[in-house]
Nitroreductase
Amino acid sequence: MDVLEAIGTRRSVRKFSDRPVEPEKLRAVLDAARLAPSWANLQCSRYVVVEDAAMKARISELSYVESYFATKGYKSNPAQQALANAPVVIVVCGDPTLSGDLRGQEYYLTDVGIATENLMLAAHAQGLGSVFVGVFDEEPLGELLNIPPGMRIVGLFPLGYPLEAAKSGPSRKPLEEIVHYGTWKG
């Protein structure tokens, strides 16, 4: 699968089969994330790979942040079951001290974002699925996983074989609606 095909056909997966992820595929996904560009090549991204069922269940519990979801009328985080049931959960962290901070822009978030796009595309290219889970209770999750102080958890990525074949993806806005040439027009 070439990169443009992977970009065009990747979908968020929230339901996984119980088939384990082969170690070589997991390593390839992590290596793709490692190869991502970063601010001054400081490589601020770090990864915690969780395969233990009890740990994944606890991570799932910590992905429901009542102050966020209750105000939106949700009784659960739509991705909670994905975190509990995926064969693997990759917790992606960033070290803000190993990236730029320019005029209030914290580039560790960009660095980690680039790395996780690589992660998700590499997973898809190998027949695996994933989804970005960005709402979680960071402090108790950091304690659960023994993440050092100062390190920020940026996202959770359940990973495994999709339970069902991918359907067509959500619609995207046409380029004419989102791209401006020369200056911002209209």
